[in-house]
Amino acid sequence: MKKAYDTLSEAVGDLQKAGYTVNFDLVENGVHSKDLQQDWKAGELTVDKFYRFEGMSSTGDNTILYAISCESGEKGLLVDAYGADEYISPEMIKKLKMP
User: Fold this and answer.
1) Nearest to residue 46, comparing CAs of 18, 68, 16, 77?
2) Residue 92 domain-assigned?
3) What are residue 53's phi and psi, to 5 degrees?
4) How many independent structural domains does the chain possess?
């Protein structure tokens, strides 16, 4: 894994090769995998890495890619837009907070 990537697709490809193969969706109290039909709460997750991608033409193009490990052993990726409109719990906000 690199410290930085030029594109989101390059980062996703490299992280998938490194074992981050589950596609996560953000839900109120944690993340969800549609493929595995499973949920993990914020306390069961570790954000291993994150990468920011800022759009050149619009702030609506800004995204963050999170590489996440679960206590149960699954590793995957969460792609999230800056300023998402969905409600997430304070615990999950804390988990995704970037230094």
Assistant:
1) 68
2) no
3) -130, 120
4) 1
Q: For 80-96, how does the pLDDT look when each residue is reduced to its tens digit (9 = 90+)?
A: 866 555 678 888 888 88
DSSP for 32-66 reads EETTTTEEEEGGGEEEEEEEEE--SS-GGG-EEEE
Task: Name beta bridge partners: 27.
Answer: 30
In which domain, by residue range, is 36 found? 8-84
Q: Looking at the domain assignment, is residue 39 inside a domain? A: yes
Q: Is 28 inside any structural domain?
A: yes
**Distance set, CA 74 to CA 1, 3, 50, 62 (Å):** 18, 22, 17, 26
Question: 3 lies in a domain?
Answer: no
What is the token pair recorded at 56? 């050149």
pLDDT in the model for residue 83: 56
Q: Which residue bears the tokens 């570790």?
A: 46
